[in-house]
Design brief:
Blueprint: H1 3-22, E1 38-47, E2 52-60, H2 80-89, H3 94-105, H4 111-129, E3 139-150, E4 154-165, E5 171-177, H5 179-182
Antiparallel strand pairs: 1-2, 3-4, 4-5
Helix pairs in contact: 1-4, 3-4
């Protein structure tokens, strides 16, 4: 169910890492004649706890980009579903996200890199939230996933999921929210 969201999150995070590595955004004229620039992407399938996810990993001309979220030659990711939910639920500081990545993935990522990554992820989430929806969904499921959220203290909170099936038979997440989002 969260395969699309996991793919979007990982690709946004990798784009953020590449931006931090090169020091400029995609298509930014500041990157011209710097000696290193983006050089397309390559496809990679990573295995998560529940499903395989096909992602595109950015490359640079000097081959000096070493991604932290999904390392080179890394095939398996564990705990990605928790990371997707915790970032979707928001509320973590850059320091907490950095600590989370170090704990779960063993990846040492600076606060600046985390800031760049979260900016890209939030940008992708806003784009996803503002996408046009189909006029008709034959089937809609509404469910809740209980996750641990830190809001002063750690507590179990439900994240409500509206999942639909399109007329073509594809699954589409319509919304993720908490009761607090709806008040």
């Amino acid at each position: 169910m969260l395969q699309q969201l996991t793919k979007r999150l990982l690709e946004s995070a990798l784009d953020g890492e590449m931006t931090d590595h090169l020091g400029y955004d995609k298509h930014d004229p500041a990157g011209r004649n710097t000696g290193n620039s983006r050089n397309g992407t390559r496809s990679k399938t990573v295995l998560t706890d529940v499903w395989p996810v096909e992602i595109t990993v950015p490359r640079d001309r000097n081959a000096s980009f070493e991604p932290k979220i999904v390392g080179k030659r890394q095939k398996r990711l564990t705990g990605v579903d928790e990371m997707v939910i915790s970032l979707a639920a928001k509320g973590l500081t850059t320091g907490e996200i950095s600590a989370h990545l170090a704990e779960v993935y063993g990846a040492e990522v600076s606060r600046q890199t985390i800031s760049t990554i979260t900016d890209k992820v939030i940008e992708g989430m806003v784009e996803w939230q503002n996408r046009p929806l189909d006029p008709v969904y034959p089937v809609v499921f509404i469910d809740a996933i209980h996750v641990k959220v830190r809001d002063g203290q750690v507590a179990n909170r439900p994240i409500y999921v509206a999942l639909a099936v399109t007329c073509e038979g594809r699954r589409d997440i319509l919304e993720l929210c908490t009761i607090r989002d709806r008040k």
